[in-house]
Write a structure and sequence with these properties.
single chain; alpha+beta; Arc Repressor Mutant, subunit A; WH-like_DNA-bd_sf; transcription; DNA-binding; DNA binding
């Protein structure tokens, strides 16, 4: 594989992640998940923390789950969210987001 082919493959691999992270609502949700910790927050808690409607947060989380950016964990009737893509976790640190703990 040439260097150019490698770069083009990277562009292909990262484009979906950057599409997710380029949306302000999704980036705010990712930042809130990152801050609270893995599988600590429900969609309602994330919506309140980011000042978006629950329906908007739910749709964004669903899209991010389909993309592989976040994962969900059911606890009874509640669903909690965590960052599923370690690359996204590193990018969130790189842009300066922190953890609560």
């Amino acid at each position: 594989m040439t260097a150019l082919e490698h770069n083009l493959a990277l562009a292909h691999d990262w484009s979906g992640t950057f599409k997710i992270m380029g949306d302000p609502t999704r980036l705010k949700l990712l930042s809130a998940i990152h801050y609270a910790g893995q599988f600590a927050s429900t969609v309602t808690e994330l919506a309140e923390a980011t000042d978006v409607r629950v329906a908007t947060a739910s749709a964004a989380l669903r899209a991010m789950e389909q993309n592989g950016t976040v994962a969900s964990s059911r606890d009874g009737r509640s669903i909690h969210y965590g960052i599923a893509d370690e690359r996204v976790h590193h990018l969130l640190h790189w842009i300066g987001t922190s953890h609560e703990h």
